[in-house]
Amino acid sequence: MRTSLVHLALFVLAVLEILAGLIAGSAALASLTTEALARAVSAGARSFSRWAGVDPMSLRLRADLAAALSTSTATEGGSR
Questions:
Q1: pLDDT digit string, tens, across residues 44-56
Q2: d(CA 36, CA 75)
Q3: CB atoms near residue 44 (< 10 Å)
Q4: Are 49 and 56 in contact (CB under 8 A)?
Q5: Is residue 75 predicted with pLDDT exceeding 80?
Q6: Contact present, 56 and 43 (Cβ < 8 Å)
């Protein structure tokens, strides 16, 4: 009886491991797909801006974005 319970527990753990792997793989695939789409859109925007003869990102916008991204917001409880 004990052996069959151990085998059942091992089977359940193996199924849970497979499910966790499927979930992790799906998340990784979604991440790769999103990154590829973002790169394609970025390349298209650069190509369109060259075709239209405009600068896609002005120096002021670049500086504003850098300033916004470099500021850190303090959270309760400090850094983690």
A1: 988 888 888 887 7
A2: 33
A3: 10
A4: yes
A5: no
A6: no
Q: Which two tokens stand for residue 23?
A: 């979930």
Amino acid at 49: S
Which H/E stretch holds residue 17?
A: helix 2-52
- Side chain identity at 16, as an amino acid letter? L
pTM of the model: 0.55
CA distance 40 to 44: 6
Q: What tokens does 53 get?
A: 């003869």
What one-letter code names the amino acid at 71?
T
For residue 79, give both structure tokens: 């850094």
- CB-based contacts of 34: which residues, under 8 Å, 6+ apart? none
